[in-house]
């Protein structure tokens, strides 16, 4: 049995509806700046529970926009090392310096105490990353730090569509939220991203920045082409309608994994406090036995045709470009380095994964893990 690590999900009905609506866009010539982008933005803002949602063409520019708005030029932004490299890159693109913080072993999310230690007079904000779809359980502590130190809080919610904290959705918890709709994500538009905020000025800024810095008829800012097309928005509209279903199904699959893992000594799921709804973009496990995660990953692939993933085997500060620019080195962020290189693995997780496939993965783990 082959099991892939992740893939997008569309029902037959949704595919037909998407094809029909895209055909209408093609007929009407409304390929960009049309009604579908607006419809997607409005329904996304409503779902997240924020005033504004601004659709863009990637989860990278949806981070860069608020960072530019909060003017991080020559300033510092604290970013956890356990993320996709874009989280930190965007601080550099916006003219600032990412200051990389360590993670908590239990959640793989940012360690607020390490973030606190790294605050300097140049710090302008903190970026939290809801890794794998888990909003950091210490969100209140992080918010308090931001309030006391007068820092902005950006949520990199690229992996957290539909996740909640005290019933509030990811993307509504800070000054700005950022989503990616890359095909492996909990919902997709093919490529795409979304900025979410309650700040009217950021809304205006984002709309201008995604459209070459246009304000009225003139170009008052140095902007980009960061627009989402109506074709992508159509896909997003139908995916968003299914998001609650997707999150429930991912939680059901996660529950099945967690139950099964009880019988396997040394493999532990990440525990989730009851005030948080995980959306399980990924299902990471922590390995406490003697076998290295990388060895297990190879066995699963070679012997069982099971593909896994990692979040993230090489943390940001040890990526070659970060070693080059900022001279980060081994030993700088010891928890992330130890846990991620040897003890963390993400089991296959996507809507469409069958119970038989989950059981097959569990059986393989039971046979092979020591
Ligand atoms: C945490 C995180 N931030 C940012 C991004 C960047 O999103 P995109 O690939 O849509 O530009 C991703 C996507 O992979 C991500 O996982």
Automatic annotation (TrEMBL):
Task: Note the Pfam families from the entry.
Answer: DegT_DnrJ_EryC1
Write out the entry's keywords from A to Z.
Pyridoxal phosphate
Q: Keyword tRNA processing, does the record have it?
A: no
Q: Which CDD domains match?
A: AHBA_syn (cd00616)
* Residue numbers of N6-(pyridoxal phosphate)lysine PTMs: 185
Record bears the keyword Ribosomal protein = no
Any one Gene Ontology MF annotation carried by this entry is:
transaminase activity
Output one GO BP term: polysaccharide biosynthetic process
User: Active site annotated at which positions?
Assistant: 185
Q: Which PANTHER family match?
A: DTDP-4-AMINO-4,6-DIDEOXYGALACTOSE TRANSAMINASE (PTHR30244:SF34), TRANSAMINASE (PTHR30244)
Name it.
Glutamine--scyllo-inositol transaminase
